[in-house]
Amino acid sequence: MNSMIALPIIVPLLGTALCVVVAPWRWAQRTISLSALTTNVVVAIVLFARVDDGGMEVTQAGGWPVPLGISLAVDRLSAVMLVVSAAMLLPVLVYAIGQQAEETRYAAFNPVYLVLAAGVSASFITGDLFNLFVAFEMMLVASYVLLTLGGRPGQVRSGMSYVVISLVASTFFVTALALIYAATGTVNMAQLSERMPELPLAVSTGFSLLLIFVFGIKAGLFPLFFWLPDSYPTAPGAITAIFAGLLTKVGVYAIIRTQTLMFPPDARQGTLLLVLAGLTMVVGVLGALAQDDLRRMLSFHIVSHIGYMIFGLALFTLAGVAGAVFYVVHHITVKTGLFLVAGLVERRSGSDRLSRVGGLVRSAPMIAVLFAIPALAIAGLPPFSGFVGKFALVSAGIDAEDWVIVGVSLAVSLLTVYVMVRIWSDIFWGDPEDPAIEAYVASDASRVPRLMTAAATTVVVLIVGLMVFAGPLYDYAERTAADLLAPQQYIETVLGGDGE
Amino acid sequence: MSVLLAFCAALLFATGTWMLLQRRLSRILIGVGLIGHGSNILLLVSGGGGGNSPIIDTADPEDFTDPLPQALVLTSIVITFGVTAFLLALGYRSWRITHDDVVEDDVEDRFIARRREMDRAVAEETLAERDQAAEEDRV
Question: Quick one: which of A33, A29, A28 has its CA closest to A13?
Fold first, then answer.
């Protein structure tokens, strides 16, 4: 019995319960949630090291024999996702505490944030399709609350469309589960992987498409992304950062997991995913170009980069999947960093409109540096991790001789550079275009709390760390891809584990 | 029995989808609820037909009904219930703010759409000025 696997779910949930008990004392809530998330980071790193050395780890919840209970499994993909998500959740909480936004001072904030953390971990750990649904719901319900906590008109309006669209996706998830259970008689992913090839190809292809639809909504895949740039920017900076960094990537993780594990090669949707990936990249980046609001621009930009990850997966080659895994890790870190810095910009200048803010490079050089590093990383300039990720993906595309998608991804990465340059020249260079903003920047009100800067700096340091350790990380991504493309080991470990 | 339930699920999905496509929030809420019920019924019938309660030593295991979908559907109902309650609260809040339950277009979207028109107006004005200048030069 290896119960350590369950810790990333149990610890935050326990923290939630304690936070509710100590609700009158904010400092106690903060201490509890900070220590729960710190524990999570430690547990994730230990699991990561153990899984990379000793192979994947499995436990059966409640000790039920194998296909009856819920399997919890950590393989290389889950382990790396756990580490990155834990490493992002902690600094973002610190940032939220420093930000002192109205919402983050509510008694509900800390417990709900911990539920979000538990839901994200549970999605990565579970080996059971129905449990994946429950984990998604845990994460989504927490995100509904976090998004609308302030109750401002904009939040209510965008929260509404966010909740409705997510609810539709969840309903389709339940429908897909019902159909899959009716056809195969199981919801255990490893067992599904064994039984799926026995189904007629048309049926398994249908399931594959249905799951892509469900997870595509959560991941923000074209043409299902429209809710994302509307809803994310209305939340306070810290919350937008964690949504942007993590939530869409949980959808991407679910697509990678279900496509590689559950479906036989001829039911996988390589071509469809390639087309969707190309369109997602193009539409996302063009949407970003049209925006005037910094956070909306970055939100559209998330959509564009989801395309890169799906592009890598859709090739279903070792290099492609490795590139996708590397890109997911890189993108979670960099995007969280960018949004945290966008929050700093807003705090320092009182606005996040590109047309109003200007000249921050002189008034706030520290923020300019903090922005420049993730911006260069996401634009994919060497030596940053974005370059390694894009290079891996493009070379995988060339190997697979998918010239169109290679061309599209290169063109989109040029446009990405253009988007980042536009932000840089509008916000950091030039002169403030609005006297009100100029006065605000000069006043005391614009002082950025130290805790916010410290948290954003931590994430930026992690981005630099990704650049330094890009080599070992890419090797790890390659090992992960090898595991994913030969799921036999996953199946045997889950089904033959300690249940018998 | 199963045919009736399948028909029922289909009907719920159809009406739910229709309601979901309306512009009024109250109808969207009802639509979400109906589709949710449809998928829950589907989940319930996914375990096959009915049978005896699955309690060991009370009947022949061959005649047991499949208990797993029932457990799953219970979880799913609880989740749908919770989220619907949250959505209702949100809808109420929205009504308190706007006194209307028509879902609006996004403000920023409208701003950006208007900006394009503004750009076009500016461009046309510039062109007109240039033409006028050219005209004056000729004169």
Answer: A33
CATH number of domain containing B40: 1.10.287.3510
Domain around B39: 2-104
Q: Specify which of A161-165, A454-458, B15-19 reaches the highest per-range mean pLDDT.
A: B15-19
* Residue B1 confidence (pLDDT): 55
Q: What is the DSSP letter of A268?
A: S
Rounded CA-CA distance A79/A73 in Å is: 10
Q: Do B48 and B93 have their domain in common?
A: yes
Bridge partners of A58, per DSSP, are: A73
B109 at interface of A, judged by CB pairs closer than 8 A: yes
pLDDT of residue A500: 39
Chain A CB contacts of B109 below 8 Å: 230
**Quick one: which of A254, A245, A347 has its CA closest to A298?**
A245
SS3 of B91-118: the string is HHHHHHHHCCCECCCCHHHHHHHHHHHH
| Tally of domains in chain B | 2
Report yes or no: A98 and A449 within 8 Å, Cβ to Cβ. Answer: yes
B92 touches A at CB < 8 Å? no
Report the pLDDT value the prediction gives residue A383, as an integer from 0 to 100: 83
Most B-contacting residue of A167, A226, A356 (CB-CB within 10 A), to test interface: A167
Both tokens of A344, joined, read 């700093």
Are A84 and A333 in contact by the 8 Å Cβ rule? The answer is yes
A168/B106 Cβ within 8 A:
no
- Specify whether B76 is located in the same domain as B129: no
Residue type, B27: R
Same domain, B48 and B80: yes
Report the pLDDT value the prediction gives residue A212, as an integer from 0 to 100.
92
Give contacts of B102 with chain A, Cβ < 8 Å: none
CA distance to A27, A108, A152, A242, A346, per residue, from A103 (Å): 15, 9, 10, 15, 16
Sign of the dihedral defined by the CA atoms of residues A23, A25, A28, A29, in that order: positive
User: What local confidence, expressed as pLDDT, does residue A118 receive?
Assistant: 93
Task: Say if residue B85 is in the same domain as residue B124.
Answer: no
Average pLDDT on B97-121 reads 73
The whole-model pTM stands at 0.90
Predicted local distance difference test score (pLDDT) of residue A497: 53
Q: Find where tokens 């040029």 sit.
A: A414
DSSP labels for B21-83?
Answer: TSSBHHHHHHHHHHHHHHHHHHHHHTT-S--B---TTTS-GGGB--HHHHHHHHHHHHHHHHH
- B124 and B72 in a common domain: no
The token pair that represents A170 in the structure block? 């969840």
A148 and B90 within 8 Å at the Cβ level: the answer is yes
Same domain, B99 and B110: no
Angstrom distance (rounded) from CA B38 to CA A174: 10
Query: Are residues B130 and B93 located together in one domain of the fold?
Result: no
Task: Please indicate, yes or no, whether residues B18 and B78 belong to a single structural domain of this protein.
Answer: yes
ipTM above 0.90, yes or no: no
Q: Compare CB distances from A174 to B43, B82, B106 and report the shortest one's residue.
A: B43
Tokens of A262: 């559950």
Mean pLDDT of A60-80: 83
